[in-house]
Amino acid sequence: MKTHLIQAARAALQWRLLLLWCGVTLLPSLVLALPVWQYLNVLSHSVLAPELAVSLNHPALADLIHGFREQGGGVRNGALLSAVLALLLSPLLCGSVITAARSRQTLGFRALWSGGLAEYPRLLRTLIWAIVPVGLALGAAQGLHSLAESHGEKAVLASSAENVALLATIASVVLLAFANLTLDAGRAALAIDKRRSSAVKGWWRGLKLLARYPGAVLGLYLALSLGGLLLAGLLGIARVNVPTGQIVGFIGGLLLTQAIVLVLAWMRSARLFALIALAHADDVRHGGGVAKAAKVKAPAIESIDA
């Protein structure tokens, strides 16, 4: 599995694909940043504006929080619009990754963009279907937290209640991650079969893939996710510690922020690359011939022998 992990990680390092992710995700970021920027502009009228530009003190934070509660409608609306826009753009980005995974050559921006548009309808249906598995995961998470609260009310020691609450939180994260894994497996199943248009059938096929090769699917997905999140976390720590109030710090912070976006884009792409290769190998092994009949080329990385 180590070889295939490296192959998927390398195959996702396509600068055009990553740059496309960075450019597309910049739009919802701007939608969110503009109202926040306007709201923070109230601090420019303070006599302490130069000091506040370097760091916010507790009174300034208290004023911002109080003002947000009364006049934060624009920021809340911007956040909602940004989230909706990001969701609507996500099928386009996933489609570009699928297009890149199918090709054995590095594609240009036009091919990635057109491929993303071609895959958009199917992947949009997958996004809509995501309400079901994600909703089930959220419902289970809510139930776990309710049980943790009930235990906390009866617990004698505060540490016992805190430990149960922590376990409930960890279990909730695992459930949501597993729901996302099944959706990505469904996207991989759709990627190898251009004729399949049903998001539900694609998701079900992804569940079968997970049931046949739980070790390979979970291992690849977990390794790539942990690697990407760890690197993004380190960059985030560096971003928080960048000096403020100077042009060098501003540019450095901006570059680190974009680096975080690129790392997350690589992580998402590498996971799909690995799952598509595994789905293709499963199709060949079980004699379905789906990819061949649909005239879909083998993935850019070698088929994974699970």
What would your notes on this structure say?
- The protein is globular.
- The mean pLDDT is 84.
- It has helices at 2-11, 15-40, 49-54, 58-71, 73-102, 109-129, 131-154, 158-191, 199-212, 214-240, 247-285, 290-293.
- The protein is built from 12 helices and no strands.
- The protein has one domain (2-293).
Q: Summary?
A:
The protein is mainly alpha-helical. It has helices at residues 2-11, 15-40, 49-54, 58-71, 73-102, 109-129, 131-154, 158-191, 199-212, 214-240, 247-285, 290-293.
How would you describe this structure in keywords?
306 residues; mainly alpha; 81% helix
Order of SSEs, N→C?
Answer: HHHHHHHHHHHH
Radius of gyration: 22 Å
The overall pLDDT average reads 84
Main beta sheet strand tally, sense and closure:
none
Low-confidence segments: none
Number of DSSP helical runs: 12
Cα shape: globular
| Beta-strand fraction estimate | under 5%
Oligomer: single chain
State the total count of DSSP E strands.
0
User: Which class of secondary structure composition applies to the elements?
Assistant: mainly alpha
> What count of domains describes the coordinates?
1
Give the termini distance in whole angstroms. 8 Å
Q: How are the SSEs placed, and which strands pair?
A:
Layout: H1 2-11, H2 15-40, H3 49-54, H4 58-71, H5 73-102, H6 109-129, H7 131-154, H8 158-191, H9 199-212, H10 214-240, H11 247-285, H12 290-293
